[in-house]
Write a structure and sequence with these properties.
It is built from four helices and no strands. It has 64 residues and is mainly alpha-helical.
């Protein structure tokens, strides 16, 4: 049986997939989902306003 090198995997590790805070771009849909709610037009509009007002701090309140 041939052993595979873990570094040769094409699937990113959990550490590579996890991000915290607002270090990456996010959109209103991401903000609504991070808050634990279903996406609705009203929630998307509120999320857009929060992003405009608070920037990355809008999503950082929901993410570690």
């Amino acid at each position: 049986m041939e052993e595979t090198n873990p570094e040769e995997k094409s699937v990113p590790s959990a550490r590579e997939r996890l991000f915290t805070g607002g270090e990456r771009p996010f959109d209103p849909e991401d903000l609504v989902m991070a808050s634990g709610h279903d996406i609705t037009p009203e929630r998307l509009e509120r999320a857009k306003r929060l992003i405009e007002e608070k920037g990355a701090a809008a999503i950082e309140r929901y993410l570690p």
